[in-house]
Structures are given as C-alpha cells and as structure tokens.
Amino acid sequence: MHPALNLTLADTFNIGTILLLISYLVFAFYYRLYNKVWEYASTHELLAVVKAVTLATLIQGLGEYFFNNYFHFRIQVSLWMLLVLSIGGIRFIWRIYRDGFLSVSSDSKKTLIIGAGSAGVMVARQLIKSKNSELKPIAFIDDDSQKYKMQILDIPVVGDSSKICEVVEKLEVDNIIIAIPSLSKKSLNRIFEECSKTSAKTQILPMIEDLMTGKLSVNEFRDVQVEDLLGRETVELDIESISEYVTGKTVLVTGAGGSIGSEICRQICKFNPQKIVLVGHGENSIYQIDMELRKNYADRIEIVPVIGDIQDRMRIFEIMEEHLPFMVYHAAAHKHVPLMEYNPREAVKNNILGTKNVAEAAETYNVNTFVLISSDKAVNPTNVMGATKRFAELIIQSLAKNSNTKFVAVRFGNVLGSRGSVIPLFKRQIQTGGPLTVTHPEMTRYFMTIPEASRLVIQAGTLAKGGEVFVLDMGEPVKIVDLAKNLIRLSGFSVEDIGIQYSGLRPGEKMYEELLNENEIHAEHVFPKIHIGKTKVIHAELLYRLINKLLTMSEDEMCETLIAVANNKYDRSPLLSVVTQ
C-alpha cells in the first residue's frame, strides 16, 4: 500500500478535480457523447452518460485512495449523482423543452390513432417529437379490451372501433390515422366505414415496404386508396420459382407500354432476364417504359424498345426472327367494350388477327412459352370485345395441339388503375363536382390490382403445359356502386354532395361478369388461387375458315358470327353458310 502523502485538503481537491476532468473527457470521447444529437436523445444516450460518469468518478475515487489511503464513499456517491444530474440534465433539457412546449401548437390538428400496437405507438412517438408535424395525437382506438382506459406515451386508449364516431365528435378530432399494418381488407373496410361517417380526414400508415426502403417515413401518411377497400386479400403468388424460368433468357412482351404489359416488364426484370424486348404500337408509352427500365436495370439487362403493330404480320415475324425469345407475353389488345361495339372490324383485326400473327410467329421461331392475356369477358360473351378475346383463346388452343411451343391463356377481371378502369372516370367526375355515372345499382365486377394481374400472368408461364386457360380465384365480385361510394368518401366528399346517377347498360355490357362458365369449372386449384378451365376447342380447319371469312362480312354478320362462335352456337346464321362453303 502506498504510504499516505499527508496532502492538504486543497491539494487533494485539485488532484481529484484534475483526475475527474481528464478521465471524464476520455470516457466521454470513448462513448461518443460529443457526437450525439441530443435533440433526439433517449435511454441509450442516458446510459452512455451514466457509464462515462461512473468510470470517471471511480478513477477519481481510486486516485484519492492512492494519495490519502482513504475513500470517501458518501462523497463519491453524492458526486456521481450530481454529475449524472448536471451532465445528463443539460443534454436532455432541450428534448424536454421541445417535447413539452415546441411540439404543441395552437395550429396543431387533433389526431386520433387507430391501433395502439407497436405501429401505432411508433406513429404517436414520431408525431410527438416531430417539429414539422401539424398533427397532435390525443387518443388511441384499439379493439383490445385490455388496453381500454390505459395510457401510452401519456395518450389515453379511449375505446374500440365502434366508438370512432363518438370519440371524434367528443374530442373534436381533425385527423384519423389507421396504424395497423396487419389489418385485413375486410376489417379495414369496416373501420373506414366508421371513419367516413365523421368529418375527420382519414389516412393510413405507409406500406411496410415503403418504410423499410426509405421511400416514406412513418409520419408521411398516405390517403386510403380504393385498392385498400376491395374487401378481399391481395393474392400473393409464389414468384420465387419464376427466377429459374426467366433468369438469363430473352423475353418479349407485346403491348409493353400498356398498364398490364408495362407491369409485366417490371416484374420480369426483377428476375434478371438476359434481354427484354418491349413491343408496342404507341411510341410515347414504349419510350416511357424503356426509360424507366433503363434507369433501374440497364447495367445488367439488355432492353430493346421496338415499335411495331401486331396487325403487321411481316413486321411481327421480323421481330421474332431477330430476337428469338424464350417466352412471349401477349398483352396487346383492344379492350374497351362499348368502343369495340362501334368498331367491330378493328376489334377483329387487332384481337384476332393480331393474336394469330404473334402466335404463329412464336411457333415458327420455336418460342418455348406463349402467354395470352385474356379477359373474364371471354366467358359467355355478349359483346364484340369479349368474343374476340375468346377467338384469341381458340387460336392459341388450336396451335397448342401440335406445337412444340406451350400456348396458354390467362383470364382475369377488371384491373384497378389500368387505362380501361372505371376509377379514372369516377375521379374525373368527382373533380367536376359529379354526379358519378353507374350503369346499374346491381352491376358487379371482379377487381384486382395491376401487380396482382401481372404476377398471375408470369406465374402461368411457369405452369404451362400447353392449351390451358388459367383463371385466378378472384374472390367475391364487387358492386360498382359500392366502389363509387368508397371513392367519393376517399375524395373527402359525401355521397349526397357528389351524387350517383344510373345511366343504364351500354352497348355490349353485361350485368355480371364470369371467369368460367358452369361447364368449364375445375374445382381443384393447380396452384394456390389458380384454376384451369375446361374450355371447348374448335376444329382448326373450321376456326381458320371462320377467321378468313370474318372481314368479308358486313358488320352485323361479323358481330353475330363472333358471338355465336364464342358461345359454341354453330347452328346460327351466318355460320352455316360459312361452314358449308
């Protein structure tokens, strides 16, 4: 033991102070106390302060013992507490001031958070500490009865979702944030119905993918979208198996500038094909998808934009010969039902003859798999568009019988956000003050999202054996009038403000759409959410004779023949004259 040096009290104080200062500075730098943003300090930063102060006072105490052979325990404890309070307090006082005063503004909008789970708490904490947010969380709503009347971050849980209207009125809520990432579409629809009864603006937490990739932060809420309210869960297909089928191959997509075709291109590029050929008739749409794909994939995928019309048989064969694709996704088509009723020849030329050109070129140049994008309107068609899509199915089924190329078709319903979707029309009508035009209060349609439809098409390519018509199990059909009402509420209006007007069925429209008729249904799935239809096939000789005759007919005869063939009614005029010639 070191002998006592008999230092004076002043000497002991000076030595202890020097030791304390030096050791604290060393540990402060070690724990990076001078590199922390104390505006956002939390328990982690407080723990770092405690560690630095503890080690510094310990060294100071050991130094005192070394020089005087005496350790003042009470003094050391008091010193430790004083340092933690002063050093920690100085650093935390800015956060305390900001959270207690700066975040509270007279302009703040009272916000109700639906969901008192981890996501809801994260939202509340972010809003509380954010200087720029105008939203002030004042209450939680949660269906967990054990949380009722509890407080989280000093914010009370005031009831379950049935109390939304009551709470909004009582607390004068301006904004509602739905913060339950795991919420089912059905539950979301129910909650949104309650929220729409109030005058508060309703928003939803960004998708987890957007939060994780940094596209959006937790306090950048998005409006509830009509896709959120479809009333069914989005079908997630197992696209991992696709990578072996696509990676390193050449893929050709017709109609690549359209809503479905462009999304197929985006999905395909995730699996690193060697080359993707973008075929389309409209130069602007092809330019846009070409630029988008080049921005993200030009370093590892050869992207080839091609302007070409599928009605130009020679051009299609030239494209197929030049690029020799492994897979072809045929998305090019005329899809507008009433418009095709007025222009049946164009529907025949594009949907039938165009499909025939692309399919026969694919067979000629030994394409492995050909996937036709079909429609639910091909089932028992009452319109020209649906009948031409059924004809297109018949063409590829006929080719599949004796071809090395695997020809398949994929049927699905209406696609939200596509060019032909009713949603853009409704939005334009809302912007002009309404009313929204709905054909009939009982009209129903199947709906799906663009990514969902595209994944189905890609998945079908991996399941193809040849000749199949794949159909997505799309759940329950949705009433168009319900879709219209939801969109009005999502736009911040009431149905009474905008109004809904019933216009009656347009030319060629059906009240209800089908994905398979009663004679085509296979009960079992070949893949989760995917059926194969038992469709009838027309003899190839008869089919091609009909196709050759179509453009020589009058428009009335053409329409009658199309719909008769598509519905397997071969005893109707003018079919008999065509068949017997």
Automatic annotation (TrEMBL):
CDD domains, alphabetized: UDP_invert_4-6DH_SDR_e
Domain Polysaccharide biosynthesis protein CapD-like: 251-532
Protein keywords: Membrane, Transmembrane, Transmembrane helix
SUPFAM superfamilies: NAD(P)-binding Rossmann-fold domains, S-adenosyl-L-methionine-dependent methyltransferases
Transmembrane regions listed in the UniProt entry: 12-34, 46-67, 73-94
Similarity comment: family membership: Belongs to the polysaccharide synthase family.
Protein name per the record: Capsular polysaccharide biosynthesis protein capD
Species of origin: Neobacillus bataviensis LMG 21833
Lineage, broadest ranks: Bacteria, Bacillati, Bacillota, Bacilli, Bacillales
